[in-house]
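ugh ok fine here u go
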Amino acid sequence: MAQVRQLLAAGADLPGESPRRDAEVLLGHVLGKSRAWLYTWPEQTVAAPLAAAFGELLTRRRSGVPVAYLTGRREFWSLSLQVSEATLIPRPETETLVEWALQLPLPAEAAVLDLGTGSGALAIALACERKAWRITAVDVSEAALAVAAFNVSRLCPGRVSLHHSDWFAAVAQRNFDLIVSNPPYVESDSEYLRRGDVAFEPRSALVAGSTGLDDIRQLVDRAPHFLRDGGWLLLEHGHRQAGAVRELMQEAGFPSPQTRCDLAGHERVTGASTPSKSS
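structure:
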């Protein structure tokens, strides 16, 4: 039987920037152990069926399949989320949007809408931080909604209302204090679509026309009809799209839109509030 250290060494040729870490995550997943356990017990022998299962995961990873899809898990905002090939893989840059949302001067029981929720990452992170907020999350993909429902049931049961919807269709008669979204924003001919994990993620959650702005333009144009007086809209976008998104917001009647950078220093989230009638 192979030892832990031998199995990890077999993953040295994995693609990507962190082959050792990926091998550790995959072996830990197969064994049901933490990475710390792997460090502590490198001489531990692994039963043949488990070693074979690990070998199969290495083969799939070598073909490019994302680690998150192989394990069915990805951490976001310190939460372990289930993911599948029906959802985008949550990324650290999206936490910029969560941080901004939590800093807004919203009512204690704010009504919040997450458009295109996918795995539920944004809605669940906000629900875990603001237990009194009334959060609605929608997605056009029923498969993605099933993943989001599982995550809600584990992490914040009863605190996020999920709906099958093409953007605002299921909330036509409602108004919100905050609308958030990580919509599709990649150009249809972008090289980015053929790189790394992105090549395996659902195109419908990535691509938004030739400029990457088709969905953002629709959300910005329609959001004022669903926001309360002084309500906020926060949108994630590509790191070269901030100026265009600010311009779209201004054209839609949002005064003074602002942009925040992610941890890599890229302009990542743009937001603005509707004019307050009391001001």
